[in-house]
Design a protein that fits this description.
The complex is a heterodimer of chains A (234) and B (335).
Chain A: E1 3-15, E2 19-31, E3 35-39, H1 46-53, E4 61-66, E5 69-70, H2 76-86, E6 87-90, H3 102-113, H4 118-131, H5 147-158, E7 165-169, H6 177-192, E8 197-201, H7 205-209, E9 213-218, E10 221-227
Parallel strand pairs in A: 3-8, 3-9, 6-7, 7-8
Antiparallel strand pairs in A: 1-2, 1-4, 4-5, 9-10
Chain B: E1 9-20, E2 23-35, E3 40-44, H1 51-58, E4 66-75, E5 78-79, H2 85-94, E6 96-99, H3 113-124, H4 132-149, H5 155-158, H6 168-180, E7 186-190, H7 198-215, E8 218-223, H8 226-232, E9 235-240, E10 243-249, H9 250-255, H10 260-267, E11 316-318, E12 322-324, H11 329-333
Parallel strand pairs in B: 3-8, 3-9, 6-7, 7-8
Antiparallel strand pairs in B: 1-2, 1-4, 4-5, 9-10, 10-12, 11-12
The chains are: A alpha/beta (234), B alpha/beta (335).
């Protein structure tokens, strides 16, 4: 099994008036078809780590390979290209564009990648939304949908370009328990049924325990790779 | 209130209700309001007063189970309720803009600031060239202009930055730049400062005031803070339980409040000029908006109430530019 993400001594220091260490000396590997939780107290560097892995930020020190490619020295355009084709993001808030329908929101990353024809994009966006139970909501705007539905549109948008890796930052953090469970089940199915790798920052330790393994951060450092009760599938 | 030609926004008899299992919630109940070109109108009220729902109604953004039951909403003389969703969307992006309550949850962390501003320009700005490199260049130039206008240094360079690379105050400025990207005639700022510390609050409000002057734009400032209103707004409108209870020039309303609720609000905020005097919160709670009795809505909390308040109370004119919804105004105006 090849690794989708590999880091060695990844460190990010913010050079403000007083230097602030966000993450320090993180060495890890995440393979294909893995369902990984990132946990830790507030301010422990969970989101900062996710931003680094997602190429939204650059490390101060250390190396980062994404899909087998060393990312240091890449131009912003190269990083953006990798991000667009290889990584899908889901955040605590949906960040859907309010003036666009569900389908149009899902089409936006495809338009950026510009690999499909317009009718094919439309078709694919519809398929993705239908597969997440949103067949009746294709032409609704975000303000016409519930919180849980909007978050499912955000998941569909993350899948738009069929990336192997989904990075999620508190994806259920603003949902009630029923909708949280629904979104969790969808993320799990992405790993088990569609072969994606999902790395999710979460405060919810019960949820983390249901994932393949847990990366626990304390003060920006990795506190060991904690096994969880769920055995990892072959 | 008589309609005046030349109002940018004119709302008459607006009623917005929410159908719930417990009954019909009358969130906005007969609101009239005007916004004049270039002015700043403060809209004040506690949560549940209907201030946000009023402007969600204006923007056509009331979600089910809410609906506008009646009323007219005219923007530059056009009846917004008669427009198709597509036409309304065009006005909303281009001529009326709204800033969100919380900049931290409004910017997509996975997109650069430039991408997010450009997205809005592409969707709404009909003055851009229609295709190709010229379109990208023109949009980019506008994005840089707007970021510079809101005080983001090296704006050209910053277009490539992601939201997490900015402080909370900077993100709020970026949100304002996005709202202003198409140079709207009306900016609706809903609690623009909720998530910010006091110093940054002041900076953001100064920024909105400054841009309003420079672009000649009208601003509606929705807030619960009368202190903010006294500093930045030409006129103020006080809402209580879905109705306007007092309206007029800010200095007049704050200097000589006429509705007991406005008086209570003023007594409940700490002010430097009243140092040493106790702050008096308004006792009691906003009434349940389901099945309201046809009487003054402030009755249960009012320390000036009389039996005559137990009937529907209409707005009463106080001179040419002021109005208040209190039956006891008549006692004061009698010779």
């Amino acid at each position: 099994m090849s690794n989708l993400i590999e880091t060695r001594n990844l460190t990010r220091i913010l050079h403000e008036t007083v230097p602030v260490t966000l993450v320090k000396d993180i060495t890890l590997a995440i393979g294909e078809r893995e369902f990984v939780a990132v946990t830790g107290p507030s301010g422990s560097g969970k989101s900062s780590l996710l931003y680094l892995l997602g190429l939204l930020d650059r490390p101060t020190e250390g190396t980062l390979f994404v899909a087998g490619r060393e990312t240091e020295g890449m131009s912003e355009a190269e990083r953006a290209a990798i991000r667009l084709s290889t990584i899908g993001f889901v955040f605590q808030f949906h960040f859907l564009l309010p003036e666009f329908t569900a389908r149009e929101n899902v089409e936006i990353p495809m338009r950026r990648l510009a690999k499909l024809s317009r009718p094919a994009m439309r078709e694919r966006a519809g398929e993705l939304l239908r597969s997440l139970g949103l067949g009746d909501h294709l032409d609704k705007r975000p303000d016409q949908m519930s919180g849980g539905q909007r978050q499912r549109v955000a998941v569909a948008r993350a899948l738009a370009n069929d990336p192997p890796l989904i990075l999620a930052d508190e994806p259920t953090g603003s949902l009630d328990s029923r909708n949280s469970e629904q979104v969790f089940t969808i993320l799990e199915a992405l790993v088990r049924e569609r072969g994606k790798t999902v790395v999710a920052v979460t405060h919810d330790l019960d949820m983390a325990a249901r994932m393949d393994r847990r990366l626990h951060l304390i003060d920006g450092m990795l506190d060991g790779n904690l096994p969880t009760e769920t055995p990892k599938p072959d | 209130m008589s309609g005046t030609m030349g109002n940018l926004l004119e709302v008459r008899g607006l009623r917005t209700v929410f159908d719930t299992r417990a009954g019909e919630v009358r969130a906005v109940d007969g609101v009239d309001l005007d916004v004049r070109p270039g002015e700043c109108l403060g809209v004040v009220g506690e949560s549940g007063s209907g201030k946000s729902v009023t402007f969600a109604s204006v923007m056509g953004l009331v979600r089910s189970p809410g609906r506008i039951e009646e009323g007219t909403i005219r923007f530059e003389g056009r009846d917004l309720r008669a427009l198709s969703p597509k036409e309304l969307r065009r006005i909303r992006g281009r001529h009326i803009a709204m800033t969100m309550q919380d900049a931290l949850t409004a910017l997509n962390p996975a997109l650069t600031i430039g991408e997010q501003i450009l997205e809005v320009l592409y969707a709404h700005d009909e003055t851009l060239p229609s295709v190709g490199r010229a379109r990208t260049e023109a949009a980019r130039k506008k994005a840089v202009e707007m970021l510079t206008l809101v005080g983001i240094p090296s704006a050209d360079d910053r277009l490539r930055y992601y939201p997490h690379e900015f402080s909370g105050g900077m993100r709020q400025r970026i949100m304002i730049a996005i709202a202003l990207a198409c140079r709207p005639k009306l900016l609706i700022a809903d609690e623009p400062t909720t998530a910010l510390d006091v110093t940054i609050q002041a900076q953001v409000l100064e920024l909105i005031a400054d841009i309003r002057t420079r672009l000649g734009m009208s601003v509606v400032l929705i807030t619960h803070d009368l202190g903010v209103v006294s500093e930045y707004c030409d006129r103020v409108m006080v809402l209580y339980a879905g109705q306007v209870v007092e309206e007029g020039p800010t200095a007049a309303v704050i200097g000589d409040p006429r509705h007991p609720y406005t008086k209570g609000l003023l007594r409940s905020i700490p002010r430097l000029s009243l140092r040493g005097q106790p702050i008096e919160p308004i006792e009691g709670q906003v009434p349940d908006l389901i099945g309201l009795p046809p009487q003054c809505r402030f009755y249960s909390r009012c320390n000036e109430r009389i039996d005559a308040c137990l009937q529907p109370i209409a707005m009463r004119e106080i001179g040419a530019a002021r109005r208040a919804r209190c039956i006891r105004l008549e006692e004061e105006t009698r010779p």
